[in-house]
Amino acid sequence: MGRHKEGVDSFGSERASVFSLASYATIHGFHPLGFCLVIALHLAVIAAPWYVDWRAIFAAIVLFILTGELGINVGYHRLLAHSSFRPPRWLKRTFAALGSLSLQGGPITWVSMHRFHHRESDGALDPHTPSVSFLWAEFLWVFFDHPNFLDLKSKISFARDLNRDPVIRFIERWHAASNLLLFAILAIVGASLDGTRGAIAWVIWAGAVRIVAIWHLTFIVNAVNHLWGYRNYKTNDNSRNNLWISILVCFGEGWHNNHHAVPRSAAHGHRWFEFDLAFLTILILEKIGLAKNVQRPPRFPYPENFSPKGGVYP
Ligand SMILES: [Zn+2]
Ligand SMILES: [Zn+2]
Question: What range defines the domain where residue 67 resides?
Fold first, then answer.
């Protein structure tokens, strides 16, 4: 946070470079298994039009909302990474379990990396800054170890609050197996409805298409929202609010400059036109008594002396 104290004008003084990409690749390990998995799921997406099955597509939409919007946007991001509201413990664990079924890593891994992104945003240590390249920020970074996160201990140091909960530790440990189990369940349900073809259709649609969609909707924010869009706040990074990303695809996650300015706010949309579906979900939870201590942003326009808290976590 201290490195970019002067605000947006100082952005770029310590940019990441292609050299960072080379260091990641040669020193800190490439994950061929992860790479093959990503290729395999994308090939399955290409095959999807040959396996159209409306029940499988409906299951994909329901699971997309549960594991993507609720699991990643509301759960992993606003709740676990930033503590922007307080639900009952069973619901917090449910959000963690749902997020883990999006194949984006366990909750401790995801949250530690994300908090680190806020701390080092657009600097040389930022895990996914587009200062390296657009494709690096969009997806290449996931195939390499980050030098600061080579073991679970270093991840835990950025997510001690989550590591105290044995259920979240369990979800972290078994997240790969739970995804495999979900795929097996999808195959069994599909097979029971329509034999082998049904099994393949359910695995492709409710498994691969859903996961690839959530991946790209999550990762596109890392790339586009640190390059293009407008800024409400002069944060110490290059975060941007992007209308298209926000409304069309990401449940309000695209008001990213607002989010970097006030990371703890449950609302990422701060102005009247900045629609934010994930915040609406949190408001509904608040209404029915399942969310307390919902963090709200300052009222727009901001007071003269308002200073954003770029890089602060949770
Ligand atoms: Zn965040
Ligand atoms: Zn960001």
Answer: 2-287
